[in-house]
Amino acid sequence: MAKLHFRPYIPNQTVLFPGRIDENIASNDPVRIVNTVVDNLNLDNFKKLYKATGRCPYHPKMMLKVIIYAYMNNIYSCRKIEKLLLRDIHYIWLSGNEHPDFITINRFRNRVKEEINTVFTQLVLVLADKGFISLDVEYIDGTKIESMANKYTFVWRKTVEKNRTKLMDKIRILLEQVDEAIAQENSSKDTSVEFTPAMLSDIVNELKEVLEHQPVTKDKEQKKVIREKKKQVRELEEYRDKLMEYDNHLEVLGERNSYSKTDPDATFMRMKEDAMKNGQTKPGYNLQTGTENQFIIDFRLFPNPTDTLTLIPFFHSFQHRYNRLPGIGVADSGYGSEENYRFMQDNGIEAFVKYNYFHKEQRPRYTPNPFHAESLHYNAGEDYYVCPMGQHMNRIGTRRDKTASGYISESARYKAQRCEGCPLRGSCFKAGGTVL
Ligand code: SF4
């Protein structure tokens, strides 16, 4: 039997000439790309985030490389990154064998939160410079990101406004009962008076002062009246606090219709994943992303769930970032609206954006409504439509509609001359015999 030989195994050996840390990292490993790209970034903006005194901080380039590489590998926990900095050769090489702890990593992450957007822009410009992207075309789509907040922490604008109106009425009625002089000033009938918490505080102070200077009495009836007034003042204080709460809610809501108490930036919206299939709204954000050649070139979070309303602000975000607009905009039918088409036309953006009914029209069994404007013959020279009964429909005016974003949409209105006795009147007259 041949003699068995094992390779030498000496775990605690020392080496005479230390090897390079990266000699076992492949030349095309993504970690090398992160290293090169971050080395080419200008991080001068980060300097203002550090103090000149105290212990020397870790180099921001090193910290940024480590965090970007961890995020690329779906690792977001600072404690996990701290461990990898001791165990994983890629992280050890990136960090130059430095070992920042999880607190330092987290502090850095929070410190550069504002500046990271500039880093992203620089990164995209580097890609454009190297010819990977042209920034001439932007493919846009959005997704809803669920917030970590509980789904029962909602505040709805309509409820707040309704309760606030009820509270105003209660305050007016109470003031009428509390003091005659004040009642005259704040008549319950005058609903135009909008009470503010400051106004109520002044009234409460005034009433307290009056009560304090009341002469001491032994009369039971008088004592009862004073007790009652004190109770009313307490009630008024409660109303004031409630009013303050409602005003705070409205301030946080801003333009939105809802928000979460534990994550005030999150708005309630329907998520794509609906496990319960009940269309429940959850707190979240509408993340819009622009890509080109599979690289993300722009992103922005929106509080409103409707994609149609996000397209123009998203193009503005692109313009703000790169001082120009893309030449071509590509998006799905969720972004098709007159306002968006008009914006793209006015700004020289070639639109590859379907309209809302596009997919419906592509169905094999789709039959167009014969009474809709697009099904009728239009004579452009003399500006009239021909209705299904062959009558000329002449232009009678223009209708103006205001969209949720404040855009005024104009549509021409046409009407047939005589519709009396028409056999198609029942189907046609839903729209009053007019074509828009
Ligand atoms: S109701 Fe008037 S507009 Fe409609 S088909 Fe008849 S004639 Fe034409």
UniProtKB/TrEMBL annotation:
Key words, A-Z: Coiled coil
Keyword Transmembrane: no
Pfam family, one: DUF772
Coiled coil feature spans: 157-184, 222-256
Residue ranges annotated for the Transposase DDE domain, each copy included: 386-432
GO biological process: DNA transposition
GO MF term list: DNA binding; transposase activity
Span of domain Transposase IS4-like: 260-355
Residue ranges annotated for the Transposase InsH N-terminal domain, each copy included: 21-111
PANTHER family: TRANSPOSASE, TRANSPOSASE DDE DOMAIN-CONTAINING PROTEIN
NCBIfam families with a match to the protein in the record: transpos_IS1182
Protein name per UniProt: Transposase
